Amino acid sequence: MPLHSTNGLVPSADSTAASSFLVATILLVEDEPVTRTSMAARLKRLGHRVLEAGNGREALEVAGRERPDLIIVDWMMPEMDGPTFCESVRRDPTMKSIYILLMTSHDQPAQIAEGLARGADDFLSKAASKQEITARVLAGLRTGRLVRELEVTGAQLESSLVLLQTKQTEMEADLQSAATFVHSLLPQPGSPAPGLSLAWEYQPALTLGGDLFNVTAIDADHLGLYILDASGHGVAAALRSASLMTFLQVDNILRQIGSYDPEKVLREANRQFPLSAEGEYFTLWVGQIHLPTRMLSYASAGHHGVLLSPNERPSRWLTRPSSPLGFDQEAVFVSDQITLQPADRLFLLSDGIYEAASPTGEPWGRWRFQQAVEAQQHEALATTIAHCFTEARRWQAQREFLDDAAVVGLELSV
């Protein structure tokens, strides 16, 4: 049977209920010409574009080409019946969202269940009134439109997700590159100066950490060392730490201050790194070792994580009360001195290691760190540091730290 495509006029009496909808394309599939003509006329009076087909096979071709908004299909037809047609439409991904009304002269529960199971969305009785036809068609168009809008939204969300994943991958690659660069600025384990051994372990909470440290030669007779801790986490803290690390480079310090005197370094750092508008700040411990005499000069700006562990003697913390950088531009930072002895060990640590909390919220604590160090006095320096990390992880019952965790160890040869 030939295909007919007709645009109907919009008489006011029958179009009132549809006036809020845009003109839709409806495919009417009915093998009985009189029924099809009568139904098509009703649909045209609603203001819609009506396509007609006489059987399911012909209708599949039309649906695939025209992509109608709604299909009304008769159950009983030659060549391909209504339920089989529904199954064929649902198998086509391009037509799966088209709303299908299955027309039948029967309304038995078993028949309705079969039609719905095979792909129909709703039923329309051939004996339905004009008002019911209008209502079911408008409901079907409304539902179909919502489904298509959801599909469009889903596609947009999927596209946005792909874009976000791409950006996330790019950002992670950038962060990894930055972390690799920062890592390259950290000291090489080994012997930073004659008679000294260096080992460290560092686990940033994120890819890019904000707690940094260094042990570097100042000149033939002096070794500089520091550990800094940035408040906050993430990229912003890491970038601020990198800027402070740049300031603490030996060449820059000697150019700006003239010496690596810890007290002077802290005074200038306090001036150049004030408290940020968001309240972020640094703590910083700076030391200088005079290699010929093994004299350690040191000063702290709010940093309490430096432990001296003498051989066969109790350990002690090298710190005094002080404020972090930037809180008070007139702050005074006082340096202290101590002569290091053979086999002494000096540990610089960030608070992320000793503030690691147990499942109940209790911090591991500096004194537990001290116990772990003293229990390992006769082990290799790197082994002692690794043991401290193992104990802290056991205490918090997880491998990853919530804050940057760093331990730097210096050992004087016997």
Describe this structure in words.
- Helices cover 40% and strands 23% of the residues.
- The longest helix is centred in the middle third of the chain and has 56 residues, at 130-185.
- Mean pLDDT is 86; it is low at 1-21.
- It is built from 12 helices and 16 strands.
- The protein folds into 2 domains: 4-155, Response regulator (Rossmann fold, 3-Layer(aba) Sandwich); 186-412, Phosphatase 2c, domain 1, CATH 3.60.40.10.
- The strands form 3 sheets. A 6-stranded mixed β-sheet has the order 1-3-2-4-5-6, with helices on both faces. It has a 5-stranded antiparallel β-sheet with strand order 7-16-15-12-13. It has a 5-stranded antiparallel β-sheet with strand order 8-9-10-11-14.
- With 414 residues, the protein is α+β, with helices and mostly antiparallel strands.
- A hairpin with a 4-residue loop joins strand 10 (282-290) and strand 11 (295-301).
- Helix 3 runs parallel beside helix 4.
- The chain has helices spanning 12-15, 33-45, 56-66, 82-91, 109-117, 130-185, 234-247, 250-256, 262-272, 351-354, 366-374, 381-396; strands at 4-7, 25-29, 49-53, 70-74, 99-104, 122-125, 196-203, 211-219, 222-230, 282-290, 295-301, 306-309, 316-317, 336-339, 345-349, 405-412.
